[in-house]
Amino acid sequence: EVQLQASGGGLVQAGDSLRLSCAASGFRFRDYRMGWFRQAPGKEREFVADIDRNGGSTGYADSVKGRFTISRDNAKNTLYLEMSDLKPEDTAVYYCAPEWGISWYGSRFGSWGQGTLVTVSS
User: Fold this and answer.
1) Whole-angstrom Cα distance, residue 6 to residue 29?
2) Which candidate in 45, 86, 88, 92 could, as Cys together with 40 as Cys, close a disulfide (CB 3.0–4.6 Å)?
3) How far apart are CA 93 and CA 118, in angstroms?
4) CA distance 80 to 82
5) % the chain with pLDDT above 90
6) Distance of CA 26 to CAs 45, 48, 55, 108, 112, Å?
7) Angle at CA 16, nearest 5°, toward 81 and 13?
């Protein structure tokens, strides 16, 4: 069973930094591209960033480019998201997911695991 548990969220002020972690289990973590997603209140879930299996290639949504950094530790089955210069519009629940076929696990099976809430005050 795929299990994904994000942590590290909290209440911060605009301009602050946070580091999110996502512990993954139930699949061979090192074999999968991983992604971060977020869902703000009343909005659709959106892509934030992704990273290939070895960590050599990353991609970011335009809204976070230059402020967020995705990384992974395959030995620890853990995905990270370093967030800096946080803005109120970054307020959301953050989730991680492995790429699954041509989609993401959460989108395909409707299961996103435990997210972590980030609230950025102005």
Assistant:
1) 15
2) 92
3) 6
4) 6
5) 92
6) 23, 23, 20, 16, 14
7) 120
